[in-house]
Amino acid sequence: MAMWTAKIEGGPKRVNHAAAAVDHQVFSFGGYCSGFDFETPVPMDVHVFNTLTYKWKKLPAPTDPEDKKSTPYRRYGHTAIAKDFYIYIWGGRDDSHGACNKLFRYNTRNHKWKLPEVSGKVPGPRDGHSACLIKDSMYIFAGFEEETERFSSSIFAVDLNTYQWSEATYSGTPASYRDFHTSVTLDDRYMVVFGGRCDASGPSELYREYYCNKLHFFDTDRKVWFQLDPSGAKVKGRRSHSAFVYNNKIYIFGGYNSLTREHMKDLLCFDSEFGTWLNVGKDIIGLEGPCARRRQVSCLVGSRVFIFGGTSPSGRYDENDQPNLLDHHDLHILDFQPSLRIFCMHVVLKYKLDTSRLPRVLREEIEILKPKESHKNTIESETQG
Predict the structure, then answer these.
(1) Exposed (0-12), middle (13-18) or buried (19+): which is 127, by Cβ within 10 Å?
(2) Sorted alphabetically, which InterPro entries does this protein's record hold (predicted)?
């Protein structure tokens, strides 16, 4: 039975950031935060969450002139994909440079950036696209293209061994033009697209939004698009949600629908074996999960999912009757295989049992699991040298 096991506050306050996990660490790149100056170019900031100690660390910005040349500028609406001990960043934008189409490679061992020399047909600059890793290639789908000022429905792939880009040709009906959707990988073969903001006009942004609630599959072997008609729970269309795959099941958390002005906190599961949608959020035990939000990220490490950041309504409204938003600095841990040790520690917390006779290491672990209500900055800084 899945369990919300921890809530960690005081992390980086970010929305529309990108993250990927390597070994026991979650790397978070860039993102937007209210009050940031996105007109002055600065290097991409990198935060690391240690999934063993539950601590955040901010890595230092590069100081060497050569390193600075290959470091991406801070941005939002980009994607991050991990392969081996590298993380690849693509796309995104800031308010000075606009959107980007350079491929950046981050080495998680020495914390250095590199600009691989690419070839082939490179997709145009965009943000709000999605990315997933299938075999040795990173697939990019859709997003909002800066040069044409249009939504995209194209698929590009870059071979991460040769760094050659290509645009996919296909048969079947593709997922429609959209941005701020998700794509995940099934069976190291299928790219599965869900949600996003679409426009009834097609590629043009004419503010006739609609929100797709269908699952679109792209078979990368046969180059075919197809759809399934799942049974089970009714699923609302949304954008700016997060998605992950565990045990060959697709999970969707949160998101936003501007037509209903609804921020969501549901956790949905698509069981690919039975072709069924399930609303599994109500069955999760333990702590209270994340509040309704959008623009967060989720990363799977083993049997645990780490959901952090995002934004939610503050309860106040502006002069146009639009909700003011509150950016989050919290991180929530969902464990699909909680150990007996975790269960026992939560019993200790629930019934406020005396821990004074427990070993110090257990007392420290129990302290970590206590929900922290106040914002305490727990981010450590790593200095150069």
Answers:
(1) buried
(2) Kelch-typ_b-propeller, Kelch_2, KLHDC3-like
